Every structure is written in C-alpha cells, then in structure tokens.
User: What shape does this take?
Amino acid sequence: MTTSRTQILNLLWNRDEPLSGPALADSLSISRAGVWKQIEALRSEGFAIPSTDAGYVLASIPETGSAALELGLDAPFSVEYHDAIDSTNRCARELAESGGEETAIVAGEQTAGRGRLNRDWESPPGGIYCSLLCRPSIAPVEAPLFTLAAAVATTETLATVGCDGSIKWPNDVLVGEPERKIAGILTEMQGETDRIDWMVVGIGINVETPPIAESTGLNDEIDGTVDRRTVIQGIIERFHQLRAAPAEILPAWREHSATLGRDVRVETPEGSVVGTATEIVSPGALLVETDGGTERIHAGDCEHLRPISAGR
Assistant: This one.
C-alpha cells in the first residue's frame, strides 16, 4: 500500500468529524486529484469512506486486507494479507530467508496448511491463519516460550469475543466439554547454538467448524459471526506484549491450562509417558508424575485421559 494511502487512513482513523479534500491534500503535500485517487483505491479495498460537503469520513473497515489489519495495530509488525495461499508459515520462512523483518503473514485460506508432526491442517476459506515472523534476541533453548505465548495470546483474545478456551500442552486451544480443538500453534526457527536467526510462529483458528472429529469453529462457539480483524489484531498485540515480558508467559499459561492436574499420556521420541501433569517449567517443559517418579518432557504429543474434574 502506498504511503499516501496509509497517511489518509491514519488521518481519518478515530476521527469524529469529516476531513476535507483540501485539508488532506495539504497534509500529504499532494493534489486534490491525488487524494481522490487514493480514496478510490481504499474504497476498492473495502473501506467505506463516504464523502459529504464537509469532507471524508472513515465509516467502516473491512475484516481483512493488509491495510485494514495494520490500521490501529498496536504492535511493530507489518502485515501481508492473502485471500488464499498454500501456507502462511512457508511464506514467512521464505520472507525470513530473504532478509524480511517482523511481519505477520495472514491468509483467509490455506491450500496446504499443516500442523505439528507434519499433520495436515484443514484451512478452509474464511478462517484465521496467521504466521508471525520474528527475530528474537534469545537462545534457541528459550524458543518454546514463544509457542506458549502464542497459545496464551490466542486463548485470551478468543475470550474477548465470547469464546472461553483453555490450552492443552503445548500448543492446542480447546473449548467445551467434551473438549474440542479450535486452534493450534506451529513454531519453526533457524539459528545457531547460541542464537536464533529467525522464528515463525504460525497460528491457525477454525472460524467455521471443519469436518474433523473433536474440532469446532469460532462462529459456532459464539453463536454468531466473529470480526476476524478484531481477533487477528488482538492476537498479534497480546503476543507482542508477552514476548516483551517473558516472565509473564508461564504464569499466564498456567492460568489457562487444560492440562495441569490431568491424567495424560504423552508420546515422546523416547516412548510413552503416562501419569499426572503437575507443572510446567521454563522454557515450557511439562512435569508428569508417574509411578516411577517425575518425568520432565520437553517435546511430545499429549493426550488427556479423563475429563476436567469439577471446579477446574
């Protein structure tokens, strides 16, 4: 999007009174014809910008699109939006390898989405698929904290639109009883022993319920239609807050945990671990109390073996 278009949106954003064409032209140092051209381009992107005798008003903002998602975003990410793409994580990785900086790759549909352990992730049109390219100044061993931060950001943002969820270690967001998956996180990175070159945190949220057992969609859970812009911006902003305050991540994750206190089976590279999940410790390891003692699990596929007990 051109600089002039961005400036026009910012000038009209959160303004109660119309702003005239001449005033916009003076502010941007362009002609009135140039203002009109940029206004028309914004309208073609879905922005409702009626004109009156007094000037232009920003009446409504589309749910998606790079300009719409960047407008008012309180986090230092640029946004690249696609109506459809094979994989937002793939796009973010390529951007990282070509020297790209902090960017949110967002799509309304993925044709080749995937989750952890290279599983397919159904990504039909109208969903929320967002990959955050970061260049954090942390050691690779601390990377799991970013996955936990993304899960917390997703859970807390969904709650603001009326969908109360909880987190299954390490990266699934669940809702309801019986538990149904509504979102997942996939983190990828490249770096050396002592530093991360880049990290991509992918977040996929079902908006419409997919035809998959034990899954659900956001619109069904809130009994209405969610504004995707609200959710996408909320997640990005909360994720940014948490990565800037890493000491807050584990306490927030514990608060929203669906796993702690549960009997679990965790499939790890070394085999199955069965017991009670008792705690999560830095940088995201799950402690499981087994018949043979406490196991510290850094990576694995977790299964809840019984429903949440009363009061949790």
About this structure: The chain has nine helices and 14 strands.
